[in-house]
Write a structure and sequence with these properties.
Helix content is 16%, strand content 29%. With 231 residues, it is α/β, with parallel strands linked by helices. The protein has one domain: Hexapeptide repeat proteins (UDP N-Acetylglucosamine Acyltransferase, domain 1, 3 Solenoid), CATH 2.160.10.10. The strands form four sheets. Strands 2-5-9-12-17-20-22-23 form an eight-stranded mixed β-sheet. Strands 1-4-8-11-16-19 form a six-stranded parallel β-sheet, with no helix packed on it. Strands 3-6-10-13-18-21 form a six-stranded parallel β-sheet, with no helix packed on it. Strand 22 and strand 23 form a beta hairpin. Helix 1 runs antiparallel to helix 2. The longest helix is centred in the N-terminal third of the chain and has 24 residues. The protein is globular and about 60 Å long.
Length: 231
Amino acid sequence: MFTVITMIKKIFKAFDDILRFFIIYMPGTTGRKLRYYYWRKKFKKCGKNVLIDEGVIIQGAEYISIGDNVWIDKYCVLMAGQVNLAGRTVKRKRNASFKWEEGELIIEDNVHIAPNCILQAHGGLYIGKNSGFSSGVKVYTLSNLPNDPNDFTKVTYFTPLNEISIYYIGPVVIDENVGVALNSCILPGVTIQKNSFIGPFSLVLTSFKENSYISGNPARKIKDRFRMEAK
């Protein structure tokens, strides 16, 4: 009996994989509608007027919450859910601004994620209202470290395929009305407070306060984004 049930589950899983393939890559308005109806049943939460374009890859949908008027553009990758790191050396970076469970991806209202972005939310990722990511933006909440921070004499590997690898994990918070420009990268534990802007090709390793214009590798505050007082 167990074998029969297992086989039936595998058949349904294979059918869902095939269905998902066609839904992911179906173009046009029909594809958008099908993707919306398909993913809203799988997401933890899904608002109204959510556009998911063709080629978008989604993993861990049950950990993803999306608000109203959100557009996930072509060929983006969304990864959520907790990762089993048992037996691995892990350095955790706490983030008091993140109020949800590890592994959750929360995208609030009126957010546009442009083509070819990667949102890796295994450590937790929040994106506030009215924020936008340009093409090629990458946010990582879980990454590898090049060495063991507790023992620099220890030889480690920079690959998840080897057990002697060191992981760095921490939630990322992108507050409301934050713009992230072309091909920028944000690493674990970072908070970008509201009304800030990250310039193109920036590597963001640390947190920044409200109304910051951020740029560089590593990124630093260049100036205020908006003038708070008239001249």
